[in-house]
């Protein structure tokens, strides 16, 4: 337990240091093109956490043959969300909603390893879909006026799939008896979402 507490403290300090530079993941710049789409999920700390968290949760909560369902749902809803701003659809408080989604994904990860708290798979996938819709709208809102949606979307979809794959791989490794590491990872994701939310209120 002492080792766990020490690692958790170090992880928390590192996370706070990262958050200090990334509390506002979307500084208002316009995005365009494939390269911008590829970079966007990596440039926003909230996006990066969400993509990886979906892969982690899928590795823990879904049967081995269906683990791609989590990333597949996320990617489909991400693309839909990104298209909505092109039709003038915007949500007030979107940045706060994105931060809440990160905290919710952290909670979903914690619940995945608890028999008492675990959500049914359809409910978990629904939460993943809502989170993806919010992240997609944030992506779409940054597309520069007059720029091609297709290239930009192809970029952020490819980058998101890559991050999902990383989450699945790490999640599979964490399932091998590393309960303390899973709890620490899930806790840091949830805490980061709350910290991002506090910076946006």
From TrEMBL:
Pfam families assigned: HupE_UreJ (PF04955)
Bilayer-spanning residue ranges: 41-61, 68-87, 93-112, 119-137, 149-173, 180-199
InterPro entries linked to this entry: HupE_UreJ
Keyword Signal part of the UniProt annotation: yes
Record keywords: Membrane, Signal, Transmembrane, Transmembrane helix
Signal sequence coordinates: 1-25
Protein name: HupE/UreJ family protein
Record organism: Pelomonas caseinilytica
């Amino acid at each position: 337990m002492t080792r766990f507490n020490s690692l958790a403290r170090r992880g928390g300090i590192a996370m706070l240091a990262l958050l200090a530079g990334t509390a506002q993941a979307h500084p208002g710049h316009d995005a365009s093109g494939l390269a911008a789409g590829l970079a966007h999920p990596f440039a926003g700390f909230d996006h990066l956490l969400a993509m990886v968290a979906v892969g982690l949760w899928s590795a823990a909560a879904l049967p081995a043959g269906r683990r791609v369902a989590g990333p597949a749902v996320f990617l489909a809803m991400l693309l839909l969300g990104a298209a909505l701003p092109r039709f003038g659809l915007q949500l007030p408080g979107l940045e706060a909603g994105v931060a809440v989604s990160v905290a919710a994904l952290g909670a979903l990860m914690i619940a995945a390893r608890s028999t008492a708290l675990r959500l049914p798979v359809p409910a978990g996938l629904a939460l993943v879909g809502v989170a993806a819709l919010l992240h997609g709208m944030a992506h779409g809102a940054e597309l520069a006026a007059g720029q091609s949606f297709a290239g930009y979307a192809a970029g952020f979809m490819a980058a998101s799939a890559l991050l999902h794959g990383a989450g699945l791989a790490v999640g599979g490794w964490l399932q091998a008896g590393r309960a303390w590491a899973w709890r620490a990872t899930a806790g840091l994701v949830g805490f980061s979402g709350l910290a991002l939310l506090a910076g946006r209120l």
